[in-house]
Write a structure and sequence with these properties.
Elements: H1 10-31, H2 40-52, E1 56-61, E2 65-71, E3 74-85, H3 112-128, E4 133-141, H4 149-155, H5 158-161, E5 166-177, E6 181-183, E7 186-189, E8 191-200, E9 204-205, H6 216-234, E10 241-250, E11 258-259, E12 262-271, H7 274-294, E13 298-305, E14 310-312, H8 314-327, E15 334-335, H9 345-351, E16 354-362, H10 384-399
Parallel strand pairs: 3-4, 3-5, 5-16, 6-15
Antiparallel strand pairs: 1-2, 2-4, 6-16, 7-14, 8-12, 8-13, 9-11, 10-12
């Protein structure tokens, strides 16, 4: 039976009174962005805010991670983790906001400033309303954007030192209208890998004696085209995968008559299933070596695996769905299609059952805002109360808060 939908939500109503304070925290973090594994100021701010609430704090988990622990007043052994990320991106901000980045070339272009703030808001509420049965670990993670923050925290004993029966994550989505939630069970975000292929030959004079050279530019051209045959002929049509070339480097623009002796291609690979991921790795390397041999060249091919696919667990996906529905005054949680972006929360979901949900933050006339990872992106402060209420609702779904 579908649960009754509240006409009003006491958490949202309560947090709205705090919104100026929370927005000020968010904008302060936004003005002082830090790259992954450099979040010393942000981590110190988080620890300071948690301690001011009387919350037990552990710093330096995985170098710069912060964990706040809140114990409920009701008897219970259930333990869950709520995770937010803290790092920024190497992008020059163009929003023109009064709180725009003061760290030139670095900006919060993915909303991690908002994620951190929403979890701090949940910490404030939960520290004042501990009528739940169990323990909540608030996990503030550094370095989500490709610098290994989740891996570092797990390697530093995150789930040994702070055991969790389940762990939950949240990400804003500026291309979804503000206040809309979206989630899906199973694979939700893609595995993110990179490949690096260097072809080596003799080079030569491209005008007078190209016949005396082994031309690596021809090899790389065939290789780039052949990559798409992996998607079209080696990956089952009902499965999804992406292979894209990001750079081709070789030769000199001031010497167009010189055939280079070496050329390097780099790119990205995305997939959802382990078997498809294995196929991509195998075929990229086989194609590079095979084409090089056929043209009298050599190839050095490296396929470097990044984070795995983010796979939401069925039971926790339903917990997250119910938690989000409980704070919505209208509408339902959307079941979204798989996303080919990547998220290192996937590593936490490999270690513990859990779920990752999206919260719409679009505020433009069409219900969207500039996309993440762009110079014009800015987190929508208006969704902070809803994000806080979602976190509190997850605790209620998991451990019961005793609220009416």
């Amino acid at each position: 039976m579908e649960r009754a939908r509240p006409m009003t939500n006491p958490v949202i109503d309560g947090v709205k009174a705090w919104l100026p304070d929370l927005a000020a925290i968010r904008q302060d973090i936004h003005a002082h962005p830090e790259l992954g594994m450099e979040e010393t100021r942000t981590a110190a701010l988080v620890a300071r805010e948690l301690r001011a609430l009387g919350i037990e704090v552990t710093e330096g988990v995985g170098k710069l991670g912060v964990v706040g622990t809140i114990k409920g007043i009701r008897p219970g052994q259930r333990v869950i983790g709520l995770r937010a990320d803290m790092d920024a991106l190497q992008i020059t901000e163009q929003t023109g906001k009064p709180y725009a980045s003061t760290n030139i070339g670095v900006m919060h272009a993915c909303g991690h400033d908002g994620h951190t703030t929403m979890l701090l808001g949940a910490a404030r509420w939960l520290s004042q309303h501990r009528d739940f049965a169990g323990t909540v670990h608030l996990i503030f993670q550094p370095a989500e954007e490709g610098r290994g923050g989740a891996k570092a925290m797990i390697a530093d004993g995150l789930f040994d030192r702070f055991p969790c029966d389940a762990v939950y994550g949240l990400h804003n989505a500026p291309t979804m209208p503000a206040g809309v939630f979206g989630i899906r069970p199973g694979p939700a975000l893609a595995a993110s890998d990179r490949f690096f292929v260097t072809f080596r030959g003799t080079g030569g004079h491209g005008g007078s004696s190209p016949h005396l050279a082994t031309d690596v530019t021809v090899v790389q051209a065939h290789f780039v085209l052949a990559l798409q045959t992996i998607i079209g002929r080696n990956v089952p049509a009902i499965e999804a995968a992406v292979l894209s070339v990001g750079s081709i480097q070789g030769g000199s623009p001031v010497s167009p008559n010189v055939m280079p002796a070496e050329i390097t291609i780099t790119g990205t690979a995305r997939s959802y299933l382990p078997a498809v991921r294995d196929t991509l790795e195998k075929r990229v390397i086989e194609l590079a070596n095979g084409l090089a041999a056929s043209y009298g060249c050599t190839a050095e091919a490296v396929y470097r695996r990044g984070v795995p696919a983010l796979v939401n667990h069925a039971e926790q996906t339903e917990v997250a769905r119910h938690a989000a529905n409980a704070v919505l005054s209208e509408g339902e949680v959307a079941t979204i299609p798989p996303i080919t972006g990547a998220e290192d929360f996937a590593l936490m979901l490999e270690a513990r059952p859990g779920a990752f949900i999206f919260l719409g933050g679009g505020k433009g006339p069409d219900g969207t805002s500039p996309e993440v990872h762009t110079p014009l992106y800015d987190f929508n402060d208006d969704i902070i109360p809803l994000g806080v209420a979602y976190w509190v609702s997850v605790v209620e779904q998991e451990m019961g808060s005793g609220r009416a």
